[in-house]
Design a protein that fits this description.
heterodimer; A: 525 residues; mainly alpha; 3-methyladenine DNA Glycosylase II, Chain A, domain 3; two-stranded antiparallel sheet; two-stranded antiparallel ribbon; 22 helices; 6% strand; B: 248 residues
């Protein structure tokens, strides 16, 4: 332990000075993919620490005690490392799944992402190029400890970067940056500023500790070149075959011993997904998304790479129907235009509903109504919400993907995600008594119950001063639309039809094809 | 002709760096100088094409359950070849690319193409795909490296630019510059793509706003007209829509 200072120096330098993500550019795919939410970032970070430490130790031991004595490190290092890491990740996943379901739900879902994490391969390669396995430079225990420290430190650095990144990204969600910077570009720019900050650590240590000595490397290369090629080929083939057999056997045994029953549906959905583990769906990899679908249901069309084909297959597995007409869209539950829902005070602050809502409950007299400053239109990633001249946002259903951004952005909670087929919707959210509603808005629900009486299917009820439609019973007949004296029950079919006709005013055939194509595109993106 | 389109798609339409955003680590790490970027690109073209060809040729022999480990073995073999060749003939390049040569093995582009293309398509098409994707990767790397080396070091391929009067921004050669240039480049290409899409969206918006019979401007105008008429008529019923007139 006389080298304790050395280990500490190595640890801190790999966490701060030579941070894997910010200074050495390792493991960027998961860094960018999983850093959208703090909870996922932390989970992924701990999973990486765990796997990196294990990989560093195992690869170091193999290199030092198998490959180096046989003179094979030059030719087999890459193959052996990646084989070991891939098997290790799978092995760890199986063990955790069986022994600790709690730990598995916390870390396990990130494990498939880690196989393709170059930081894990990177730490093994770095340990090798630093010569920790070289008996001439480091003792057996010393080398192993250094390799371990680099593995753990690299993981801690990764966790630190991920956590900071996710915190910044969560805060920036909804900030008004240019649309073309959305997603990866902005993430890179944030990372650039973080890297700039981390440059400040670079004076912390002199770099002599971790720099590989080129002379030693050359000597090692020369030593590796000594045995005859034929001998090497024989050895190499033998070692790879033995290693492959051992790892295969290990995984086979593990898959038997640690077998956990999984829902066959999950397996089938996994087969339908492309397996890129890109995290684009917002879940930690394909397995997590598949599990979510089976357990709780949800949107089957979230997989970008898989597109409509994958969505169709998943829908088949789950026994739900998926076709373009079964889409869900967002809709605004308010008709209080500037003319009919007057303001109670002038608001001249930042043009953002969330800001306006903070001052005396917002400028509109109706405390439930739309503020009309367009936060929803600004936040919509698909350009599917446009502010109308009437002061209300309009959802362009053909472009809407029901992503729910507008639902969270609206301070009045006015957006409802509804099935596209449910065309009769209540466009008011006021729970005030009829008299009060009448005072503040000419197009608000006054709870007159005429819709209730008109409905043959008992599908519409006035609950807490507001009409509510039960879509299990609603037949979209439109009786309530005709009965409503305030015009707040809207049949969107008419609106949609008129819009489609206008979209292709001249050519009826083109008119049918155009919206369908647009819808297809919306579903894919 | 089909081969040509397989080849061409990797360069712009499905550019691995700027459009698919795959294989980020090397594109940041080795783009400090043009020479490194082109060297890395060449290595990736070689590995990608060779592994695509081999995987495609043997695609029917790999058992589907363990195809990924099989792909990895194929890829790692070619990466070892590249590393050995570089160590022998371009030791300087090998030294400066460092661990990013062995890391080609975990580059998402290579496994991604193996899984998405070579595992399903015939040999020639896979070769074209590998060449095209590799070339797209190389060009993207060179694009990033061009900015970083010229603005950060005031040189091209290591040769100093003689025209003086510019103080190079060293930060671009360092880590933050890598993130910045790559991020803004992806943003630039996203902007190019978005421009087309936004035009379509603007057109759709214009239609939607003009035609929405439920809430659109025509309705507001109708309200205004009716209110004006009523006020003119008597004034007994001051304002507010009567039953039936509020719908389109």
């Amino acid at each position: 332990m006389d080298n304790l200072v050395e280990y500490l120096r190595l640890f801190f330098s790999v966490v701060f000075v030579a941070n894997f993500v910010l200074a050495q550019f390792l493991g960027l795919c998961p860094f960018l993919g999983v850093s959208k939410k703090q909870s996922s970032a932390v989970g992924m970070g701990f999973a990486v620490i765990f796997v990196m430490a294990l990989a560093a130790v195992v690869c170091h031991l193999l290199l030092r005690h198998v490959l180096l004595p046989m003179g094979l490190e030059g030719f087999l290092q890459i193959s052996v490392f990646i084989l070991v890491i891939a098997s290790l990740v799978q092995f760890v996943e199986m063990v955790i799944k069986k022994t600790s379901p709690a730990l598995y739900t916390a870390l396990g879902i990130y494990l498939p992402l880690i196989t393709t994490n170059c930081a894990v391969m990177g730490v093994a390669a770095l340990n090798a190029s630093n010569g920790f396995a070289d008996p001439a430079k480091f003792g057996a225990v010393d080398g192993l400890l250094r390799a371990t420290v680099q593995g753990v430190g690299g993981g801690v650095g990764f966790l630190l970067g991920m956590y900071l990144m996710s915190a910044i990204r969560e805060d920036l969600d909804g900030a008004p940056y240019p649309k073309s910077l959305k997603g990866f570009p902005l993430a890179f720019v944030i990372t650039a500023s973080m890297a700039l900050a981390f440059l400040g650590f670079s004076g912390m240590f002199s770099p002599e500790g971790s720099a590989p000595a080129p002379a030693a490397k050359a000597a090692a290369a020369a030593a590796a070149a000594e045995p005859t090629m034929a001998g090497l080929a024989g050895w190499g083939g033998g070692v790879l075959a033995v290693l492959g057999a051992v790892l295969g056997l290990l995984l086979y045994i593990a898959s038997r011993v640690f077998a956990v029953k999984t829902d066959p549906k999950v397996e089938r959905i996994l087969a339908a997904l492309p397996g890129a583990n890109c995290g684009g769906c917002g879940y930690a990899g394909c397995a997590a998304y598949a599990e979510m679908l089976v357990k709780t249901g949800g949107d089957v069309s979230l997989c970008g790479p898989g597109g409509a084909a994958a969505a169709r297959q998943i829908a088949e597995v789950l026994g739900v129907s998926f076709d373009a007409s079964d889409r869900r869209v967002s809709t605004l539950a308010c008709r209080g235009t500037c003319d009919y829902a007057p303001a109670k005070h002038d608001y001249t602050g930042v043009a953002d509903c969330r800001a306006a809502a903070l001052i005396h409950g917002g400028p509109k007299a109706c405390r439930f109504g739309c503020l009309g400053l367009g936060s929803c239109a600004a936040v919509c990633p698909f350009g599917a919400i446009a502010m109308g001249a009437d002061g209300l946002p309009h959802v362009i259903e053909e472009l809407c993907t029901a992503c729910g951004k507008c639902v969270t952005a609206c301070p009045r909670d006015l957006f409802r995600i509804a099935g596209e087929k449910q065309t009769v919707r209540v466009a008011c959210a006021s729970h005030d008594a009829g008299k009060e509603t009448n005072r503040v808005c000419k197009t608000g629900c006054i709870a007159c119950r005429r819709c209730e009486k008109s409905c043959k299917f008992e599908a519409i009820k006035v609950v807490d001063n507001l009409a509510v439609i039960d879509y299990a019973k609603c037949k979209n007949c439109g009786a309530c639309v005709k009965a409503c004296p305030r015009g707040i029950i809207v049949n969107f079919r008419a609106a949609r039809k008129a819009r489609r006709e206008r979209l292709a005013p001249k050519d009826p055939a083109g008119g049918a094809a155009k919206p369908a194509a647009k819808r297809e595109e919306a579903a894919v993106s | 002709m089909k081969l040509w389109s397989e080849f061409r798609k990797g360069i712009l339409k499905e550019n691995p760096i700027f459009v698919l955003v795959l294989g980020m680590c090397p594109s940041l790490a080795v783009t400090g100088s043009l020479a490194n970027a082109v060297g890395m690109g060449a290595a990736v073209i070689f590995v990608l094409t060779c592994s695509n060809v081999i995987i495609s040729a043997f695609r029917k022999l790999f058992p589907p359950e363990i195809r990924i480990p099989c792909y990895i073995i194929v890829v790692s073999t070619f990466v070892t070849v590249v590393q050995k060749v570089m160590q022998a003939y371009t030791p300087d390049l090998d030294e400066s690319l460092g661990i990013f040569i062995p890391l080609i093995v975990v580059n998402c582009i290579i496994l991604g193409r193996a899984e998405a293309f070579a595992g399903k398509n015939p040999v020639l098409a896979s070769a074209a795909d590998g060449l095209g994707m590799g070339l797209g990767f190389t060009l993207s790397l060179a694009w990033v490296a061009l900015f970083r080396e010229v603005l950060g070091n005031w040189s091209v391929f290591g040769k100093p630019i003689t025209a003086g009067g510019f103080d190079p921004a060293v930060i671009l050669v360092m880590a933050p510059g890598a993130f910045l240039v790559l991020g803004l480049s992806i943003g630039f290409f996203a902007w190019l793509q978005l421009r087309g899409r936004e035009r379509a969206a603007v057109a759709a918006t214009r239609f939607a706003l003009a035609e929405e019979p439920a809430f659109g401007p025509p309705l507001v105008e109708q309200f205004k007209r009716e209110r004006a008429e009523k006020e003119k008529a008597a004034g007994e019923q001051p304002s507010g829509p009567a039953a039936g007139d509020s719908r389109g």
